[in-house]
Amino acid sequence: MKQEEIKRLVKRYATRPILGMTAVTIVVGFAPLIILLEIIAGVFLHEQGINLNTIYAYLLLMVLAIVYFCFAILSTRNGFKSQQWQQLVEKANASYEEGNHLRDLQDAQLKYMAGKQTNSTVLQASAAFDEMGMGMETSQSYVQPC
Predict the structure, then answer these.
(1) Rounded CA gap, 9 and 5, in Å?
(2) For 94-108, what is each residue's pLDDT tens digit?
């Protein structure tokens, strides 16, 4: 798989459930507001009965949000079972097992330091790791000027 395909796949599986849950939360959150507006229209505008068109439109919106939520959850679940996703997981696991776990820890420490310290401090720490023989091949790649 190409790098762009991998990014799209991960982004799709990460955002669909969040968007589905957000849609349901918004629709359910507006329920009291719709009821309150109907009460206000009945009391202050002296309307007789309830405006069913508003209720039907809101129920349609709620059904659409629930259908999208179900689609998002089910498509993500089925996507995790797909062959494309399984190959991606196997590739990630293989690269992690082959790698040096100590180097991963050092990479994480340097990234943390890059966010918290100045650029020169990170370069000094990277040079110290290099002197100890535990440096990264691309120690400068994580360092961005502040």
Answers:
(1) 6
(2) 766 555 666 666 776
- Model pLDDT, residue 141: 47
- The DSSP letter of residue 127 is H
Are 10 and 70 found together in one domain? yes
Please give the C-alpha separations between residue 77 and each of 7, 92, 110, in angstroms, as whole numbers. Answer: 18, 19, 35
What is the DSSP code string of 47-96? Answer: --S--HHHHHHHHHHHHHHHHHHHHHHHHHHHHHTSHHHHHHHHHHHHHH
Residue where the block lists tokens 């991606």: 88
Q: Does residue 146 have a pLDDT over 70?
A: no
142 domain-assigned = no
What is d(CA 45, CA 58) in angstroms, rounded to the nearest whole number?
Answer: 21
In a domain, 88, yes or no: no
Provide the token pair at 68. 């999208």
Query: For residue 108, what are the domain limits?
Result: 99-131
In a domain, 90, yes or no: no
Query: Can you read off the two tokens belonging to residue 37?
Result: 């507006």
Classify 116 as helix, strand or coil.
helix
Count other C-beta atoms under 10 Å from residue 20's C-beta.
22
